[in-house]
Amino acid sequence: MKNLAQRLDERRRQSLYRFRRIADSPQQPLMRIDGREVIGFCSNDYLGLANHPDIIAAFKRAADAFGVGSGAAHLINGHSRYHHQLEEALAEFVGYPRALLFSTGYMANVGIVQALLEPGDAVFADRLDHASLLDGALLSRARLQRYPHGDVTALEAKLAASRAADRLVMTDGVFSMDGDIAPLPALAALARRHDAWLMVDDAHGIGVLGEGGRGSLSRFGLGQGDVPILMATLGKAFGVAGAFVAGDETLIEYLIQSARSYIYTTAMPPAIAAATLASLDIVRRADDRRQRLRENIAAFRAGVAALNLPLLDSETAIQGIVVGDNAAATRLSEALFDAGFLVTAIRPPTVPEGTARLRLTLSAAHTAEQIERLLDALARLASPTDAP
Ligand SMILES: *Cc1c(COP(=O)(O)O)cnc(C)c1O
Asked: What is the mean pLDDT of residues 13-18?
């Protein structure tokens, strides 16, 4: 038997131990966590919708009408009117013929990739792709080939050399730890040229980027013809839970028949789907929130630049200050917590060795004053010695 206690000790020594803080308030900038009032800069609730009264009301109405549990998988009798309506509304929103709901983004990615690929196929993943995409690739037992982050030339060489039966290129739209946007037009052109599928995981782009919040594809003017498989999650900017994949009729029907994480699991509660419909209504009309978010990002970046801290290049709500050393990143996060700010330190294996960082996320719900206070705290606590 492996010595688990020893492995835990090892993690503690490397400053890699992870623990949970307990929240006693809804998701919003000002939170009560571990008994303290703090301003959070780590939620993915980019538009401030997780605690929106209209979405809460829709959730309650649906719970009164349909109860709580969905009772069974979608293919048994768990597929409610709300789930179905949400799929139709999401497909229409992103401009694809069909959409299919999954209970979580993790399950969606694992299910999609595993269903589409088999041994003898090849899958090409950006180095910084989300873990759930990689897990799907491993489960499919197709040949996994990772290319350097955003490196279209390296990907092209790998595609050209591949003799696999089917090829899938998969990428985050917005990279979850760095906040930069994938070179989607170049990836789409490459996938077309090499007769490969292209799948984009837009967990951090949907609701936030593009026209009406339609996501990373819309930001570049791309659509279904360029990206045949679009996946996005509903627990971030949408402020609810779950995920969906959008594609053509054949793709969606195939996934319904074969995505194991879709078939062998209980459908999400119908009230979640109803709440997400309400959220979608707000997201479509949330240009004011998206504008506030952009202003908050700009204010934060200008402030950090003035402090000379190593800020990653990102125009999105995800902002990284690279510290390098695991222990130093943890210390800085703890010092910020003591000063009243919740900012998580992200360490390997979530990010590459030697790039431990503060990962900050901004929301439309943050006030200018909250951002200023964070910048003041960073000026006091993040010494240049923390730079790599
Ligand atoms: C959060 C996230 C997921 C997982 O979605 P969940 O709904 O939280 O399971 C998948 N991909 C990316 C890029 C993510 O950031």
From this structure: 86
